[in-house]
Every structure is written in C-alpha cells, then in structure tokens.
Amino acid sequence: MKKKYLTIIGFVLICRLNSQAQVKTDTTFKSAPTSIFQDLDTDTDSYYPSTLKVDEINLVSSYYNQNGDHSAVTGGIGTEKVTDFSNGLDLKLSWYGQPKHKNTLSFGLGVDHHTSASAAYVSTSGASKTGGSRIYPSVDWTIENEAKGSSFGLGTYYSGEYNYKSFGADLHFSQKTNDKNGEFGMKLQAYLDHVTLIYPSELIPKSTVVTSSGPTYITTASGNRVLSGDESSAPSIPTSPRSTFTASMSYLQMINSRLQVMFLADVVGQIGYLSLPFHRVYFTNGNDAVEKLPSSRFKLPMGFRANYFLGDNIILRSYYRYYFDNWGSRANTANLEIAYKITPFFSVSPFYRYYDQSAAKYFAPYAQHNSADAYYTSNYEYAKFTSQFFGIGFRIAPPKGVLGWQGLHDLEIRYGHYSQTTNLTSDVISLALGFK
User: Fold this and answer.
1) How far apart are CA 340 and CA 314, in angstroms?
2) How far is CA 416 from CA 314, 319, 339, 373, 374, in A?
3) What is the C-alpha to C-alpha distance for residues 170 and 139, in angstroms, rounded to an integer?
4) Tens digit of pLDDT for each residue in 73-115?
5) What angle do CA 57, 337, 401 make, to 5 degrees?
6) For 41, how many CA atoms within 13 A lie in the half-sphere containing its CB?
7) Are strands 280-282 and 182-196 parallel, antiparallel or unpaired?
C-alpha cells in the first residue's frame, strides 16, 4: 500500500509546489528585493511586526483510483484495485522576533481513506479488512535571517495506519550567495517506523522472534514456514522496526532573467525489516512463503531541474532524475510541464512524465523463485517496467479573490492518468485551495 500512497502524495504536492513556484518565480525574475523591507529604514523596528499572523492556508483534496493484475499480496498475480480519498490541510504562521529575522511555523494534517481489493487475500478466508485510514500530522519551524540570506529549521512528522507507524524528524538549512542569485540547501531526515507483522492465514507463525532484520524463519519437512522461538513468549501481533536516514542537498542558480536551474541529490540509507509480511512468494516447487528482502538498502537519486520563461505567458518546467540502489535497480525520470497564462489570472498546465527502471536482483514473477534463494519478492514495485504519467492542471488567482472572495487567493484543479507496462493504470484528480 505504501507505494500507492506515495503516488497520491507526490501528485498532490506537485499541485501545490508548482502553483507556489509559479508565484515565487514570477516575483524573483522581476529582481524583487530580498524582502519587502529591504528598501525601508533599518534603524527602526516598527516595520517588523512581532505579532503572529497567518501567512497562508492550503486545503487539498484528491481522489485516486487504480487497477492492475500483479498484486504482491497474492504472489504477483491477482487484483491491484485500490481507491483512495485524501484530504490535507497546511497552515503557515509567521512573526518577526527581531528585525529581518522571520519565524515561520507550519502545521500540516492529512487524512487518507483507502479500499484495496487485494487486502481481502491477506487471509485466505477472505474475511480480512479491505479498507483503512491513515493520518499524518506534521510541524515545522523555520527562522530566516533576511539580511544574511540564510535559514534554519526543524520539523517532525507522524504517519499511522493499521499496519504501519512512522515517526520522523528533520533538520534543514539554506544559504544564499552574496549576489542572492544562488542558494544552497540541505535537509537531514530520519524516519523510525514499525511494521505490524500481519501474515497470510496459511503462513501465520506459531511464534515470533523479531530481530533487526525482521522475523527469523525455519522450514519444516512439510514445507510449512514457522518462526523459531518459544510460542508462549510471542505477542499476538508483533511489530518489527525499520529506519530510514536521508541527506538531501540542492543548489539553485538564477542564470538570467529567464532561466533558473537547480541541482539535487539525495543519499538514503535504510536498515531493519524492509519486507512486508503479507506479501506472498510462490516457488517453482509449489511451496509458498512471505517476502524476504535484505535488512539494509542504499539509494542515490540525482536530479536536475530547469525553469525557463518563454515570453510573458509561457513557463517551461523540466526535470530529470537518475536513480540507483544496491539492490540492482536503475531508473530514469524525465518530466516536462508547460504553464500557459491565458489571462494574467488564469493558467493551464499540461504535463508529461516518462519513467523507466530495471528490475531489482531479488525480484521474480509468480512461481519463478527457487526455494534456495536467500532473498525473494514478487512485488512488481521491484520489476522492470516503464511508465507514463500525463495530465493537465487549471489554476485561477484573480486579484479580488476567487469568486470575489478576497481570502481565497487561488484555486487549482489537476488531473493525471498513469500507465505502466505491467498493466497497472491509475487516475487521480485533485482540488487545491489557497487562502491568504
């Protein structure tokens, strides 16, 4: 399920980030001052309000629908039908503790409700729950020194659903160049997760011993897989930890009044139980087991982004990323979006993304794994495939507010269609409202 959530969240974030980037880029390319106070008398504090004010409120709702026939729950075959309805709220507050030191406090709250047809097959009786909800609040505090062009901040997150709990924190900072045309940014993140070990009914172990790499298995003569240890000492539904640590770096450079480029790189390390216990694997000899993956993973994505103003009404946004990890996957992503302003307050943004990846060395389709393999998965997230994602967005931001409501600064509707060469398809539509 986690993969599907990332698709939804990523699409929703693109909606907000693209619209916000359009506003920020428009003002940046006009060579605006570093802050609205740059040209004011710096000897007085009266221009720097210390009272707390609401900068903006963003509301985003989306509906996601997916179909496919390679469910990992049933060993790489079977339905992948998923529907998800999500709602998110972002609230940004700001104040000046001292001149040119801006504090921003951001609160986020998201709630998803999903149904998944394959979840019924976690239990062979078909009685398993087929839906669930996820809640994910977040808090971030950032202080910006507008005189020096630097910022520093801290953030924390939580995400919880019936089979997965995640706690996260980050530290982030940035520094602009002396001419204010360049900016270096860095974010250090840590996620501490716990996976609830929910097994298929025919593979429910008699006991559980949880190690840093997940459950410990033994194989009986009959082919049934059970866990070692004392049955009486095992909790009814144990959990197993996994941790993710990320260092993200970026450099933004204004080339001229029309061209802006950004270089991005992440270094990601994961340790712990990286499998999911309700993902089945079927072997060539007819036996089955739960997915088993290594207890560590290293990822290195590197990207390049370029925005170009083609006249007064057209903005070209392009993006490329190369990815590799020590599980054998290699991937390329190329994205292009064209934002066209039909009027100064109404824009249309068609977009297209192409993606291809090679298979991880631990992947094999249904009933093609050897039971002697050290690691195995039939989750098509790790398969070789190419995909396309395309759609269009509509954004309005009239100076007197949407529908004459001064507080409603902008409204954006966005639709996207996704298709994968593994026969996975999905559609997502979102509505984003921005208040100031």
Assistant:
1) 5
2) 21, 17, 15, 39, 39
3) 10
4) 999 999 999 999 999 999 999 999 888 899 999 999 999 999 9
5) 30
6) 4
7) unpaired
Q: Which residue has the tokens 């409700």?
A: 113
Phi, psi of 58 (to 5 degrees): -120, 130
Q: Provide the pairing of β-strand 314-325 with 131-145.
A: unpaired
Helix (H, G, I), strand (E, B) or coil at 72: coil
pLDDT tens sequence across 279-323: 999 999 999 999 999 999 999 999 999 999 998 899 999 999 999
DSSP string, 157-176: EEEEETTEEEEEEEEEEEEE
Q: How far apart are CA 215 and CA 211, in angstroms?
A: 6
What whole-number distance in Å separates Cα of residue 349 and Cα of residue 395?
8
Report the C-alpha gap between 124 and 130 in whole angstroms. Answer: 13
45-53, long-range: CB < 8 A, 24+ apart: 45/98, 45/99, 47/99, 48/96, 48/98, 48/99, 48/100, 49/95, 49/96, 50/95, 50/96, 50/97, 51/95, 52/93, 52/94, 52/95, 53/93, 53/94, 53/95
Element (H, E) at 27: helix 2-28
d(CA 94, CA 298): 37
Q: Please report, as a single letter, which amino acid is at residue 37.
A: F
- Phi, psi (5° rounding) for residue 126? 80, 10
In DSSP terms, 386 is beta-bridged to 356
Determine the Cα–Cα distance for residues 220 and 210; give it in Å rounded to an integer.
Answer: 19
Answer with the residue of higher pLDDT: 39 or 366: 366
**Start-to-end C-alpha separation, the chain:** 35
State the Rg of the chain over Cα. Answer: 24
Least confident of 18-32, 158-172, 198-212, 226-240: 18-32
Model's pTM, two decimal places?
Answer: 0.82
CA 357 to chain centre: 18
Tokens encoding 362: 């631990």
SS (H, E, C) 64-94: EEEECCECCCCCCCECCCEEEEEEEEEEEEE
- Tell me which residue has tokens 């790189």: 265
